Amino acid sequence: xxxxxxxxxxKENVSHLDSAPLPEPGVLxxxxxxxxxxxxxxxxxxxxxxxxxxxxxxxxxxxGVIGDEHASSRHGGTERAVHQYNPAHYPDWRAENPPEPDLxxxxxxxxxxxxxxxxxxxxxxxxxxxxxQDVLLEVSExxxxxxxxxxxFRWPRALKRTIRTxxxxxxxxxxxxGNICKGDTISLVKRPYPEWSVLNVQRVIRARNVSLHLxxxxxxxxxxxxxxxxxxxxxxxxxxxxxLVDAKMVAQRVRKLNFALKEPLVISNPAFEPYAFAQITFxxxx
Length: 286
Description:
It is a single chain. By secondary structure, this protein is α+β, with helices and mostly antiparallel strands. It has a domain at 13-206: PK beta-barrel domain-like (M1 Pyruvate Kinase, Domain 3, Beta Barrel). It has six helices and 17 strands. It has helices at residues 89-95, 148-152, 158-165, 198-206, 212-218, 225-237; strands at 13-14, 26-33, 37-38, 46-47, 52-54, 58-61, 64-65, 82-84, 113-115, 128-131, 135-142, 170-176, 178-180, 185-190, 209-210, 242-251, 254-261. The strands form five sheets. Strands 2, 5, 8, 9, 10, 11, 12 and 14 form an eight-stranded antiparallel beta sheet that branches. Strands 7-6-13 form a three-stranded antiparallel beta sheet, with no helix packed on it. It has a two-stranded parallel sheet with strand order 1-15.
């Protein structure tokens, strides 16, 4: 099952993920970089979301496009060196009639790369892309948007709508540095996780119910620690079925019961936490 990238992410039950479509080679339309500016979003808010277009050639290092800065440690660095956003989302945003629709234009989300043919539903975690002659990029996570979007778009619902629609974009590591230039070709080199599109990761993390095997698989993706921690917490707190494997009398009227996960999963430290709730069914297994 798939969800169009322009729709709200439903509170669904997810038990299966389809493989994402393969993106055709695209063209680099814009390269954008910007410096940190105090008061960029009004008041004391410091941000580098306003980025200027560069035609290139410009060097893309392990920490991103030269000249690009980040005001928060939650952005940038080697794990989030480059941010990419699907330009086709901007007409969708304007169609929602935000207070100032003209603010929703290419570059508004602080993206570094603007290309054709790449979207949240056809770009997967772990994908490796070749950009230009030398640069190799690896998709590391869906973007985790912050409160500053409300100020950027002068709309109190901007952050909430970005999360609910899944129109957040994605971040990438730079595996091989080099020069990039407007007009360069970007093409998929390797796809090790074909079911785990950027959009599907968000579906799994935000769904009402998710099968345990998908949650366990999500915790093993080559994502940033932020998203791995979210996935691990969902797996830890998800309801699980256990079967009784051993019962021993340890005192009069006290019996020690040992349980094992019924599902064939490997979960680190799968113990009941203090004050955990459990429903025990007696009798033969149905």
